[in-house]
Amino acid sequence: MIKYIIIVVVVLLALLMAGLVVRRKHNAEIGRLDKEKLQIQHYPIFEELAKVKALNMNGQTEELFENWRNRWLDVVDKQIPKIDELLFDAEEFVDRFKFNKATHTERDIEQELAKCEQVRVQIITELDELIGSEEKNRIEIEQLKEYYRSARKTILAHQHSFGPALEALEKKLEQFIPKFEEFDELTKDGNYLQAREIVLQLNSEAQEIFSLLNDVPTLLTEIQTKIPTAIHELRNGQREMEEQKYYLRHLELTEYLNGLENELEMLKAAIAELNLPAVSPRIETINDEIDHFYNLLEKEVMARKYVERNCSGMYSVINDVMRLTKDINDEVAYVQHSYRLQDREAEIPKVGLKHLEVLQRRYELLSTRVHEEKSAYSSLQEELKEITDEIEQIAEEQEKFSNKLKNLRIDENKARAELETLKRLLQDTERLLGRANIPGIPEEMDARLEEAAEQIFVVVQSLQEVPLNIIQVNQHLLSAKQSIEETHEKAQEMIENVLIIERLIQFGNRYRATNRQVHENLLEAEDAFKKFRYIKALEDAAKAVEIIDPNAIKRIEELVQEQLLTK
């Protein structure tokens, strides 16, 4: 029985301790909320509102002041007492260990405090905005008035610079005066925020006026002075060039300049209406167009110099290339007796002559147009350049073909010399095999030697053909060269293998009596060697020696190579 009593007492004590801990946490939270309430309650909001009294307490200012004061009084007189009641309830719930109700009450207090803080922040923000607006208005309105006076002086002092836009600019400036008066009236009535809107609007309009005062004189200078001067220079340049027999109708310069003069009047009217966004980009385009016409006139001058410098000499150039091509055509007929040419190659001079005849007719027509002086020199220059380029291309092609014809004899002699070299290499290969101390020559090597000799015969036969086909000769020569060089390499390799086999067998003979496997491998190697199967003999001999000493094979190969080098 006592045991159960002790357990109950312990549980009750644990619950009591837990409740005390939770109550302490709630008391701390209630204390924090009470502290926040006191901070809001004692915030010097009325001292802040007193700053408004330095302004004109009329109209909007007076309305705002009353609104702020009433909103804060509502916080102090209604919301703060409500929070006090909630704090009292929370403390009572905690004392009675009603922690759930205490938690809900603390959340309600948190929400009420947030509402009070939101009101405080809004009042301070709106107050700062009002006071800041008054200060900014006072500074900026003086700057705007000073700018207005400066702009007015500029317009009066430089009326001629603004031309037809003068009246519109003066009207824009006149619009500032009633707005200044409206600003003063709003400020006097305490409507500082509305006055702020007037200041912002005036700032925007001032920026526009500033831009107009800078851009209008510049654009008028372009329209009234620079572009008309350029038009005059272009007309004079056109007249002088036409007097010098230049053909310029294709440029349509007169039509363009007449249209441009009419357009300038329209642009001037747009400036009078201050429609600068439509004028400025067009002025840039007009200047680019004028520069383009200057370049076209200069191009005609340069083209005329080119035509005068090159046209007359083109006749002799065409004749020289035609004479060269005819000589090459005659040479082809002579060369074809000794050498065979492909049909396409043989036709190169004839095709060139036909092309030259076409170019000659084009040149005659061009020369006529030059003397008639009824064509633009730029088009004549372009035509002359095309004819020149095509003639140079024909001349280059004929020169290459002529050199190829001359090289046929050189190529033939080179082929005959290389044939002799290949004959000697084949003879050297046969002598090499004959001098070598080998049991015999395998059938494969005999076939290679026979094939190489046949390749030599084919080359000899192709060199005896009339007319000679040098391309075919070179093809046969290449095949013969590959065959003979490969045969020579295989012969050297075979002789080297024979020497290595002999050395390997000599080395292995010392171990035949003591190693049956070595003896059997050497027997197979000797049998293959006698049958001229040298690759098989080398493999069997290497197997035998590898059983005894794997490194011996490499040493024997090195000794054989040294022996061959000393021969």
TrEMBL record:
It comes from the Bacteria. It holds the Pfam family EzrA. Signal peptide: none annotated. Transmembrane segments: none annotated. It is a single-pass membrane protein. Residues 250-277, 370-432 form a coiled coil. Residues 1-3 are extracellular. It is found in: Cell membrane. Keywords: Cell cycle, Cell division, Cell membrane, Coiled coil, Membrane, Septation, Transmembrane, Transmembrane helix. Its main location: membrane. InterPro entries: EzrA. Residues 23-567 are cytoplasmic. Negative regulator of FtsZ ring formation; modulates the frequency and position of FtsZ ring formation. Inhibits FtsZ ring formation at polar sites. Interacts either with FtsZ or with one of its binding partners to promote depolymerization. Belongs to the EzrA family. This is Septation ring formation regulator EzrA. It comes from Solibacillus kalamii.
